[in-house]
Structures are given as structure tokens and as C-alpha cells.
Write a structure and sequence with these properties.
Distance between the termini: 60 Å
Low-confidence stretches: none
Largest sheet: 15 strands, parallel
Radius of gyration: 37 Å
Number of domains: 2
Structural class: alpha/beta
Number of strands: 30
Mean pLDDT: 88
Length: 463
């Protein structure tokens, strides 16, 4: 009877233009409208169906099973011009709207969808012009929206997702043009797979993601992070990114890169840099882990090569991380240079007072005035000599400019050309070796700083 009415009735008893509407009915037969073209609406509110409705490839103006109990729904490839309402419905089998085209909204608010170990619902490759509301839903099985195209929002507020040992949510390759709302979620059991999905806005909260033990974010992209509850700092997103960047034990850097890109576009450059620094730290750690594994399997000759490669990588990782934050914090090099210069100035100032610094001129060191200074002030001849007539016209020693001359290779103030540490004492010997190390450190810090500013350090890093 329902099929007959949905198809337009009979010439003697036609269907009202509104369509079929039943409230509180018990329907014992199967509603089979496969490949049918239905007239008007098909509304079954608060009904109890003993068999699964079959609407595969059917064409309807609107479908509503609001508040009804039914053993699943098969609407594979159906075309619904308006909305599909499953609000407060109870389905004891899989609701299939895979490859369906819905011109309005798919509303499952407060529904109980039990797909067992299967899918609940199965909206794979569905096309929905409006929103998909799964807020307050209780789903047993996988909520499958993989490869779906949703021009509105995808909402999971207050949802209970029980995927067991499988996926709680499979949104792989889905396209959501507006917001993906995943907040105030009641509970999640199973994997949340967002790999290769794209959404317009990400509106979520940290508490909901904390309930997800397994998240896949590789390839997941979003244009903005919106909403008052959505974490917008790296610190608040760290756990989410750490969970979502690993799959089957392998690390995927894309989630960090994506978050950094969105933060940078939103004007939060510092948060972007923090995410990228952590990404690069993990990449180096993963490479080191791979080297260790290869070293344990290799023969002796190959082990030496692997050890050298691993040592070089660790050295580069340590230097680039501490000196320029893997290229994302070039200002670190300035801080290091400032601290090193002040330390060097203190060292050379102490060396001057200890009589370690002498004129860097063979002519002066063999002059009568210098020989006199050596006799009069053996412990600090340079300080005595600068008070003589010849010393007063020589370059005055200043510890800070001297440290700058030695440490910064691009700076030449003339101090290191005028003065040098003596080789006649242990203090002078130590100061000379300090100068060598100090100069090498200056080259390293300056080179890394320039490389970070020009982007050379990040060349070859994931985009």
C-alpha cells in the first residue's frame, strides 16, 4: 500500500500532492521502492518497521523517518531533492545512503544507529548540498563519510561513537566546504580517520580529541580554525598533532605543516614556528632511529659509514636546533652571539688585567719602551707600556670590541690586529686556544644565522 501511494496511487485514488505521511504506524511488510520515482514526500514519523526499507536508486522529494524504529535502511544511490530526516530514529541495522545525492540536509540528531560491526551510517561517496547533523547521535559501528562531498557543515557535537576495534569515524577523502564540528563529544571508541579529508573550518575542543585514542591526520587539511573552544596554540594542539601524525608506527609530518600554515595565515607566526620546530625534531629523531636499526643489521664496513652518517646528522640536528631552532628561529643566533660576545669580553678583560694581552707587533715587542715595561711590570707589561709616550699613540685595548672582532667573522674593528695573547705564559697559551675555539664558534653561529634568515636551513624540508 505504501509503495502504491508513494508512486502516485491509482487513477481512481490518486495521491495528494504532499505525498505519504504516516505517524505512529506499525508497518509489517517491506517498503520496496528500488529504482522508483516517488511523488511528494515520504514521511514515516514514530513508526515501527519490521523490515528494512529498500530505496536504492529511488528518486524522492524528501524522506523522513523521524522517531521511527526500523532494522536498517538501504538507500544506495538514491536521489532526494530535499532533506533526509532521521532525527531521534532507532536503527538496528546499517543505514546506507552511500553514493546518494541529497539536495538538502541529512539530519541524524539524537538518533541511535546500530550497525554492529559494520557501518552506522554508511554515507560513503554521498553528495549532500546542505549540512550533515550527527550531533547527539549514538552510533555503534563506523560512521562512514569517506569520499563524501558535503557543501554545508559536518556536525558531531555531543555524539557517542562506538567503533569498537575498527573505525569510529572514517572520513578519509571527504570534502566539507563549511565547518567540521567535533566538540563536546560524549565518547569515542575506535579510530578517527581524517586522512586526505578537507574541511573549511575546524571547530573542535581539546576534551573531545582527548577521548580519541587513535587519530589519523595525514593529509587532513583545513582553511581555518574557528570557534571559541577550538585550541589555537601549539601547546594546546601538541597532543592532537602527536597522535594524528603516526600511523602503524610511522611518522607523517603533514599534520604539523598544515597546522603551521593555518597559524601563519591567521597571523600567529610564533605558534607556526613552534609546530615546525617540533616537526623537524621528530624527523631528525626518526632518521636517527632508522640509522640505529640499519647499523644493527649492517656488516662491519657498512656500520662505519652508517655511524659516520648518524654522527653527522646528530651534530647537525643539535646545532641547528639550539642555534636557530631548525631554521625557524634565526633570532636564536643573535642571542647566542650576544651571550658569547659578553662571555668573550669577560675572558679578554680578565686576560688584559692578568697581563696576558700584548701588542701584536714585532717592532713594538723589540722596542726599548717595551723592554723597559717588561722590567718594570713583568706581570702586566702591556698596561705599563700604554702609559709610555709610544704606548699612548697605539690602539687602546677594549675587551668588548676585541671579542666582537674574534667572534663575528664579518666584523673588523682592528682590535685583533693590534693585540694578541702572549705565548710566554700558561694564561696566554690558554687564551690563544680559547680564541681558536671562540672564533670557530663564531663562524658556526654566524653561518647558521645567515642560513636561517635566507631559508637555506629549511631547504628540502616538508612543505
Amino acid at each position: 500500500m505504501i509503495r502504491l501511494l508513494a508512486l502516485g496511487g491509482t487513477p481512481a485514488c490518486g495521491l495528494h500532492e504532499v505525498g505519504v505521511m504516516l505517524i505512529g504506524a506499525v508497518i509489517t511488510g517491506q517498503i520496496d521502492l528500488r529504482f522508483a520515482i516517488c511523488r511528494g514526500l515520504l514521511v514515516l514519523h514514530n513508526c515501527r518497521l519490521t523490515e528494512m526499507p529498500r530505496l536504492d536508486q529511488a528518486r524522492l522529494l524528501e524522506l523522513s523517518l523521524q522517531g521511527s524504529h526500523f532494522p536498517g535502511l538501504s538507500a544506495h544511490g538514491a536521489k532526494v531533492k530535499g532533506n533526509v530526516f532521521l532525527r531521534d530514529a532507532v536503527a538496528t541495522g546499517t543505514v546506507v545512503v552511500a553514493s546518494a545525492e541529497i539536495g538538502g540536509q541529512l539530519v541524524c540528531e539524537g538518533a541511535t544507529l546500530n550497525g554492529g560491526k559494520g557501518k552506522a551510517p554508511n554515507a560513503q561517496a554521498a553528495k549532500v548540498t546542505g549540512d550533515v547533523f550527527l550531533d547527539g547521535v549514538t552510533a555503534t559501528g563506523t560512521v562512514a563519510v569517506n569520499s563524501a562531498v558535503i557543501r554545508g557543515q559536518l556536525v558531531f557535537e555531543g555524539a557517542t561513537l562506538n567503533g569498537g576495534e575498527g573505525d569510529a569515524l572514517n572520513a578519509q577523502g571527504a570534502r566539507v566546504e563549511q565547518a567540521f564540528m567535533f566538540r563536546e563529544v560524549a565518547s569515542v571508541s575506535g579510530q578517527v580517520d581524517l586522512s586526505a579529508a578537507h574541511v573549511g573550518d575546524l571547530a573542535d575542543d581539546a576534551a573531545s580529541w582527548a577521548k580519541c585514542a587513535d587519530i589519523v591526520l595525514d593529509g587532513f587539511s583545513y582553511d581555518r580554525i574557528s570557534g571559541d573552544t577550538s585550541p589555537k596554540s601549539y601547546a594546546a594542539r601538541a597532543d592532537w598533532l602527536a597522535k594524528g601524525s603516526r600511523f602503524n608506527g610511522a611518522f607523517f609530518p603533514q599534520p604539523y605543516t598544515q597546522f603551521a600554515r593555518v597559524m601563519r595565515d591567521a597571523g600567529h607566526a610564533a605558534e607556526a614556528r613552534r609546530a615546525l620546530m617540533e616537526r623537524d625534531r621528530i624527523l631528525f629523531a626518526e632518521a636517527d632511529k632508522a640509522d640505529r636499526a640499519a647499523h644493527s643489521r649492517a656488516v662491519r664496513f657498512d656500520r662505519d659509514q652508517i655511524w659516520l652518517r648518524a654522527f653527522g646528522r646528530r651534530l647537525w640536528s643539535g646545532l641547528s636546533r639550539r642555534v636557530v631552532g631548525y631554521g625557524h628561529r634565526p633570532e636564536y643566533a643573535l642571542f647566542w652571539a650576544l651571550a658569547a660576545t659578553l662571555f668573550g669580553a669577560a675572558w679578554y678583560g680578565f686576560a688584559w688585567r692578568a697581563g696576558v694581552m700584548v701588542p701584536n707587533s714585532a717592532v713594538i715587542l723589540t722596542s726599548p719602551d717595551w723592554l723597559c715595561a717588561m722590567l718594570e711590570a713583568k706581570d702586566a707589561p702591556a698596561e705599563f707600556w700604554t702609559g709610555t709616550p709610544s704606548g699612548q699613540h697605539y690602539e687602546t685595548f677594549y675587551a668588548l670590541p676585541y671579542a666582537l672582532d674574534v667572534f663575528v667573522p664579518l666584523v673588523s674593528l682592528g682590535e685583533d690586529q693590534a693585540w694578541a695573547a702572549t705565548t710566554a705564559t700558561w694564561g696566554g697559551f690558554a687564551t690563544r686556544w680559547f680564541g681558536f675555539v671562540f672564533q670557530i664558534a663564531g663562524w658556526v653561529v654566524t653561518s647558521l644565522g645567515i642560513a636561517a634568515v635566507t631559508g637555506f636551513v629549511q631547504r628540502g624540508a616538508p612543505d
